[in-house]
Design goal:
GO molecular function, one term: nucleic acid binding
Organism: Stegodyphus mimosarum (African social velvet spider)
Shape: globular
Radius of gyration: 21 Å
Domain Tc1-like transposase DDE: 69-180
CATH architecture of the domain at 72-215: 2-Layer Sandwich
InterPro entries: RNaseH_sf (IPR036397), Tc1-like_DDE_dom (IPR038717)
Pfam family, one: DDE_3
Strand content: 5-15%
């Protein structure tokens, strides 16, 4: 009669061998994406947003991402291009965010393709985005801001861009933060060379919005 310890060892050994064989065949494990829990307020905010922008035109989308090696990056996109991908030293704070907006985003946006300044800018409800320093700077620029709903990340097409970056990273043997940065930058630059990609992602937003409306503000497919 075998002991629980020996059975546990055998199971672990078997699982380890199976995992190695699957890796040799280039199979990778994935976890199902967890859908956010929604309150009645979240649902109403999302419905209000989607009804307001159901006939939307042009936007600049932004997002920050952080990896397990404690590197932070910030990126933005429109239907015409992916913006510059700066590496953020340490953690993003309000001063750093304002500098990114002032010295990277605005020059790129006003140079091409929105030289006339006619665009909407989107960022989420991160505490940094709501700090007085950022609000004052945005007011000075007279930017058209979108009233972004809570729990609305799936409406943002740049999330799909980050997913592609993370997929590239998952297939590499990343050993340190600099390698992570190099891999992320290579993936970003590759996507920058494919305008059909970000154009198709941004073009999908009306469908995402309509899907939320059809579901009455609840979890959508994106």
């Amino acid at each position: 009669m075998g002991s629980p310890v020996s059975v546990n060892v055998l199971v672990k050994s078997f699982c380890s061998k199976m995992r190695n064989r699957l890796h040799e065949k280039n199979f990778r494990s994935k976890l199902a994406v967890r859908k956010p829990a929604l309150t009645d307020l979240h649902i109403q905010e999302r419905l209000n947003f989607c009804n307001q922008f159901s006939s939307w035109r042009v936007f600049v989308w932004e997002c920050q991402d952080k990896g397990r090696f404690s590197i932070s990056v910030w990126g933005c996109m429109s239907a015409n291009r992916l913006g510059t991908l700066p590496r953020i030293p340490g953690n993003l704070d309000a001063t750093c965010y304002r500098d990114i907006l002032e010295h990277i985003v605005m020059p790129e946006v006003l140079d091409n393709p929105f030289f006339n300044g006619l665009f909407y800018f989107q960022h989420d409800k991160s505490p940094i985005h709501r700090e007085s320093l950022i609000k004052e700077w945005l007011d000075q620029q007279t930017l058209c801001l979108m009233a972004w709903p809570s729990k609305g990340a799936y409406l943002n097409p740049i999330k799909n861009v980050w997913s592609r970056v993370k997929m590239t990273i998952s297939y590499r043997g990343i050993r340190n933060a600099d390698e992570l940065w190099d891999t992320a930058m290579s993936s970003w630059q590759l996507m920058q060379s494919d305008p059909r990609l970000f154009h198709s992602l941004v073009s999908s937003v009306p469908h995402r919005i309509q899907d939320v409306i059809n579901r009455r503000g609840r979890i959508a497919m994106y």
